[in-house]
Write a structure and sequence with these properties.
FAD/NAD(P)-binding domain; alpha/beta; 7-stranded mixed sheet; 5-stranded parallel sheet; about 425 residues
Length: about 425
């Protein structure tokens, strides 16, 4: 027998779980939110000290709750985002329990049974709102290399954390790029392994990237129209927000590399793909500029030209003659930062709802299993589903679905 029964159980107390609670309260649906640690835990413990949010302040909001700021076009640090989520939690006042981790979720008569360290909770509906950044991904290439300091971006804090010597950053997405800039400013020599990426402008023709995405309706693109690429854009909110340019990185002293494919006796094998990866990133960038130009021309909008956005620095030596190998000892590389992204970790869900890659099967957050929902994932229903400004739309639709199915079975049962 379960220790407790609720109508709807929300697993995860970050922005997605809090937003789900807000939407359920608006519809009078009884529910309980469980958070394995603290509100906004990943913002607290899995971000580096100097991280700046990639979204401009004017675009940061949650349902019926604005982000306080004095600079609309500025970018906020982690502390400000944590405070915002905490304030939103106070505004929503959810039925929330922190420090409760669900270790197992399975089907039960009439619904689901969530098992926790302190007991079990039965629920008619369950919303998984644990976010898209759950399990740090780190290849095994350098797993057995003694004496080399290695850390995933989720565990990196600041340059002082690293031993002396050069630093190899593997992964040139948004995190890898911003960490690289931070290390260069701290006087470190950085080797940056650049894989496939989608580079976009921070600002173009007087407006931020996210202004253009919203103005053109691109952020409303439904998942059914999503292209084949699963890469996130390479952008940064650091130092006032600026466009990431890997040739500029090289001019500032960064040594660009292709993908690291193997390691033996302290020597890394480098794939011959740097030129192609940079060229593809440039093409993606240029294509976006062209789309904005066409939109402005078609609508007859008054936005000044931006010729500097198309200026390209000369190719650096590390691009014209790419490295084929790197000797860690000879280059005095003492640290490796793995900016290689995250994967889902949903294997505690003992219900046949995950595909072969461990991703949930769902349609706009509604799973194949009646009563089981997902929220806060990238491209849940549209491009902006995982944005702070987009999660509320998905939560509203899921709350409507739950309310329609619940039909009055909407109270939190007392503890036994």
């Amino acid at each position: 027998m379960p220790d407790e029964t609720v109508d709807t159980l929300v697993i995860g107390g970050g922005q997605a779980g809090l937003t789900m609670s807000h939407r359920l309260k608006q519809r009078g649906v009884g529910h309980l939110v469980l958070e394995r640690r603290r509100i906004a835990e990943r913002w607290r413990s899995e971000r580096w000290d100097g991280l700046m949010f990639q979204f401009p302040n004017w675009s940061v909001r949650l349902p019926e709750f604005a982000f306080p700021h004095s600079d609309p076009d500025g970018f906020s640090d982690t502390a400000a985002i944590i405070a915002f989520i905490e304030d939103y939690a106070a505004f929503v006042a959810p039925p929330l329990r922190c420090g409760v981790e669900v270790t197992r979720l399975r089907r039960d008569a009439g619904g689901f049974l969530a098992e926790c360290a302190g007991g079990s909770i039965a629920a008619r509906n369950v919303v998984i709102a644990t976010g898209p950044y759950q399990r740090p991904l780190r290849p095994d290439v350098l797993r057995e290399h003694p004496g080399l300091f290695q850390v995933h971006a989720s565990g990196y804090k600041n340059p002082a954390q690293l031993p002396d010597g050069a630093v190899l950053v593997i992964g040139a997405g948004a995190s890898g790029a911003q960490i690289t800039e931070e290390l260069v400013r701290a006087g470190r020599h950085v080797f940056l392994s650049v894989g496939r990426h989608n580079r976009l402008p921070r600002r173009y023709r007087g407006r931020d990237l996210f202004w253009w995405l919203a103005e053109m309706g691109v952020d409303e693109t439904p998942v059914e129209q999503r292209g084949p690429s699963r890469l996130l854009p390479v952008i940064s909110g650091a130092h006032g927000g600026h466009t990431i340019d890997f040739r500029r990185f090289a001019a500032d002293g960064v040594t660009l590399l292709g993908r690291v494919t193997a390691a033996r006796d302290g020597v890394l094998a480098i794939a011959p793909d740097l030129v192609t990866n940079i060229a593809n990133g440039d093409a993606y960038y240029a294509t976006f500029l062209g789309i904005v130009d066409d939109f402005i021309a078609t609508r007859g909008l008054d936005h000044p030209g931006d010729p500097l956005a198309r200026v390209r620095l000369p190719d650096p030596p590390c691009l014209t003659a790419p490295f084929e190998t790197i000797d860690l000892g000879a280059e005095r590389i003492g640290s490796v930062i793995w900016a290689t992204g995250y994967g889902l970790d949903l294997y505690w869900i003992e219900i046949p709802v995950l595909d072969a890659n461990g991703a949930p099967r769902h349609h706009h957050g509604v799973s194949e299993v009646p009563g089981l929902y997902f929220l806060g994932l990238q491209w849940l229903s549209k491009m902006k589903s995982s944005f702070l400004s987009g999660v509320g739309d998905d939560a509203a639709l899921l709350a409507d679905h739950i309310a329609a199915q619940t039909k009055g079975w909407n109270r939190i049962a007392p503890r036994k």
